[in-house]
Every structure is written in C-alpha cells, then in structure tokens.
Specification:
The complex is a heterodimer of chains A (200) and B (183). The longest helix of chain A is centred in the middle third of the chain and has 44 residues, at 109-152. Chain A has helices at residues 10-15, 27-48, 50-65, 71-95, 101-106, 109-152, 156-199. By secondary structure, chain A is mostly helical. Chain A is elongated and about 75 Å long. In chain A, helix 3 packs antiparallel against helix 4 (71-95), helix 3 (50-65) runs parallel beside helix 6 (109-152) and helix 4 (71-95) packs antiparallel against helix 6. Chain B folds into 2 domains: 11-82, Rna Polymerase Sigma Factor, Chain: A (Orthogonal Bundle), CATH 1.10.1740.10; 88-171, no CATH class. The chains are: A mainly alpha (200), B mainly alpha (183). At the A-B interface, helix 1, helix 2, helix 5, helix 6 and helix 7 of A face helix 1, helix 2, helix 3, helix 5 and helix 7 of B.
C-alpha cells in the first residue's frame, strides 16, 4: 500500500518542503520596505482624492454646459462637492489604523483576525459613504440637469445617453461589488464573534 | 526558543535571533497564505519587516515563538484581506470535513500525499483554521496553538481532531498518523 510511504505523513511533507534561505532584515531591505510602505500610503492618499475630484469635475462640467443652472441643481452640486471634501477628512482619519504589528504580538490570532476584518469592513463602509455617495449624488444631479435640458432641447440628452448608461452601469456594478464585500466581511465577523463566544 | 534575553536584547538582536530560528517556519507559513511565488516573496519580506518593527514593543509577555507566529499570521491575514480574497470561497474545517473528497475512487498512487495538494488544502481554509492547521503541521502542541490563535484548549482539541480526520480522509495518512503530536 502506498499509505506506508513516509511521504504520506502530512507533517513530514509540510516540514520538508523546500525553502529558500531567508535573509535577515538587512538595512537595504528595511529601506526598501519603508519605500514600499510610503508608495502604498501615497497611492491610498491619491485614492481618497478621487471622490472630490470626480464631484468637482462633474460640477465644473455642469456649470460650463448649462450656464443657467437651476438653483436647486447648483445647491445639489455644491452639497455633493462639500460632502466629498468632508469625506476626505473622515476617510483619512479611519484609513490609518493605530493597530501595529506589535499589537498583533500582544493579542492572539482570533483578536487580530477580528480586528482586521472589522477594520476592512468599516473602511468599505466609509468609502461607500464618503467617497462614493457624493459622486453618486453629483452624477444623479448631472443626469437630472441633462434631463431638464433634454426636455427643452432634444439634442443633448439622446447624444449623451450611451455614455451615461455606461457610467450608471459601472456605478451600479461597483456599488454591488462593494456591498457584497461588506456583507461577506460582516458574515466573517459574526463567525469570529461566535467562535469567541464559544471560547469563553 | 525562550532563551533569548528579551529585556536586554535590542530590537535588532531579537529580530536576528528570531529570523535565524524561525526563518524556515515563516517561509512555510507564507506558503499557506499565498500561492503565487512572486507575491509570496513579497509577503515573506513584509512579515520580516513587520516582525522587525514589532520587536520594538516586545516585553516578554509571551514567548518569542508565540510572538513571531502571532505577528506573522496577522500580516498574512491582512494580506489576504487586502488582496480581497473572497471569504465565501474559503471554507472552515467543519465544512471541509463535510465536502466530498474529489479524489474518491482514484488510485492509491493518485492519493499519495504531495505538497501541492497539501498547499491547496491549507490555502482553501479560513484564516483562523489556517492558523490552527499551520501550527499543527509545524508540530506544535495544543497549548502553543492555543496561545498563538487565542482559542480555548477545548476549541483547539476539536479543530485538531477535525484536521486529523480531514488529512486522513484526503491523504490516507500513513506512518505515525500524526495523531499523538497535538499534546
């Protein structure tokens, strides 16, 4: 029987897997990791600018295209832009975790796992509320503006329709994916909470 | 492993000793979390970097080994979440036990345990169960597994029992059966 082979012992197979000689953390490697971390931080910071940038661009486009913008629409655009600017603060405040690798060492796997899932779930929620929400409002207002102009002048609305449909489809898709992610993270949180309860 | 004089040793010394002692284990740990060789190398470097940083805060509240594994697992779990691995595609040990063995009915030679299949099995597990199975495969006792994962002894015992059943079912575990190691 094959079962008698020593290669059938999972622990032996696991422990004898080929490994590279791991070089300790040299100064060069530390500097490189710091650079990587800074680059990642910069990318995240740039990412948080996407909301206000998109809301601002849509606002600017609407002002340029529809010179006599309706008072209500002006207000909606301004609100979306202000909302996205406030989002910059709230997104950045929550994005940078105070949880350090040292904390992970002090706490056990279950706690750090829970904390990480919780952090990610909150982050997804904040992105939806503070970054995605204002852009959605700005686009909605733009569509309203186009519809209002379209009612008077049949030219603009039908021409921009395919583009708008694409934008709306992308937004809806993005929203669904993020919501699903949030729900999954919540499920994971619930499971970890159950394990924690059973642990007591 | 507890012989490292934690209070006197500097961050660098602690890290160097830990890396020497647990370097291979950490590499095996990364293989449990990342299948792609390039990303695995990055993850390994990340773990080492965060480990080096973490020793700034090490105050001998637990053994160096426990500390190293807690930090390493945390970095790896963050990596999974950051990479947006969908949790719904990962299974718990309980679910894995219920799942039909795809190799059922195949020849004994096919069922022979190999590293790729073991990796695939470990990588299909949810983070917490992955921590338990990696610790089990690293030949740790139940108490150490409990310290690393934060699970109660009873909970660890149940999970180890499941791991043994799954491994035996999937690989017709032979030899010493790996059964009496989880003390």
């Amino acid at each position: 029987m094959r079962d008698d082979l020593p290669g059938n012992d999972p622990k032996a197979v696991w422990l004898n897997q080929p490994t590279e000689t791991t070089s300790p953390m040299t100064v060069t490697l530390i500097q490189q990791r710091f650079r990587d971390l800074h680059a990642r931080t910069r990318r995240k910071l740039l990412g948080t600018l996407a909301g206000p940038a998109a809301a601002g661009l849509i606002y600017a486009f609407a002002v340029r295209e529809f010179a006599a913008l309706h008072q209500v629409l002006q207000l909606l655009f301004a609100f979306a832009f202000g909302w996205s600017l406030a989002g910059l603060y709230f997104l950045n405040r929550g994005m940078w975790s105070s949880f350090t690798p040292g904390d992970a060492g002090v706490g056990a796997g279950l706690q750090s796992c829970r904390r990480e899932v919780e952090r990610r779930r909150d982050l997804v929620g904040r992105v939806l509320l503070w970054s995605f929400g204002p852009v959605l409002l700005a686009i909605g207002t733009l569509i309203l503006a186009l519809a209002m102009v379209g009612a008077r002048d049949q030219g603009i609305f039908p021409n921009g329709l395919p583009f708008l449909v694409l934008v709306v489809a992308w937004i809806v898709g993005y929203f669904i994916v993020r919501l699903r992610e949030k729900r999954e993270l919540q499920r994971e949180m619930d499971e970890l909470n159950d394990i924690e309860k059973a642990n007591r | 492993m507890e012989s490292i004089p934690a209070r006197q040793a500097s961050q660098d010394d602690l890290y160097r000793e830990a890396a020497d002692k647990f370097g291979s284990s950490l590499e095996r740990l990364t293989s449990a979390y990342e299948a792609d060789p390039g990303k695995r190398r990055d993850l390994r470097q990340d773990i080492h970097f965060q480990l080096w940083r973490s020793f700034q805060r090490y105050d001998a509240c637990c053994s160096v080994r426990t500390w190293v594994y807690r930090v390493a697992h945390h970095v790896a779990v963050s990596h999974i979440i950051r990479e947006r691995r969908i949790f719904s595609t990962l299974v718990s040990l309980e679910e894995l036990e219920m799942l039909p063995d795809k190799t059922e009915g195949s020849s004994a030679a096919d069922r022979h345990l190999n590293l790729d299949r073991l990796w695939a099995l470990v990588q299909s597990l949810k983070p917490l169960d992955r921590q338990v199975i990696v610790s089990y495969l690293e030949d740790m006792d139940a108490r150490s597994i409990g310290e690393i994962t934060g699970l109660s002894p009873a909970n660890v015992a149940v999970r180890i029992h499941r791991i043994k059943k799954v491994l035996a079912k999937r690989f017709h575990e032979g030899g010493r059966k790996g059964g009496n190691d989880a003390r």
